Amino acid sequence: MDAVLTQPGDLISTRLFLLRDLAASLEMSQLALSENDAEKIARGAAHQAELCRQWSLLEDQLRHESERGSLSLVDAASRSSMPPAPSTDHNREFEALTVRIRHLTRVHCSLLRHLQRSLAIVAHMADTHATTYAPELNLLHMATQPQAGVQSCPD
Predict the structure, then answer these.
(1) What is the mean pLDDT of residues 41-69?
(2) What's this model's pTM, rounded to 2 decimal places?
């Protein structure tokens, strides 16, 4: 994807490829989130970030090609050799992938919220037991040192 694509058909095909790859990555991340697999979650997030970077570069190229007019202007020779169906198929697939990615993103967000709640519960439990599981060195130090403002009980 780092190479600059110049043919409009290549740009459109690459766009669909990136969307397919993003959908597959989101599906794999859902499994990782449901399994609480931190390593897979991190790999999925890194992969999705890279796909977003590639998407941004591709959209810049598409915008540039559109401004030059090469996406809308096709010479007569190539127009006669190109069947009209792929453009329609590309549009349908693009729309279907867009709907699928929106759905996967909503599910992904929901799973992240549930994971965040679970982590908050574990953090709260750890905080409430922090003094119980304090290192022994601190407990020994606290037991041997009188604390300021604390009076001992009269015998």
Answers:
(1) 90
(2) 0.63
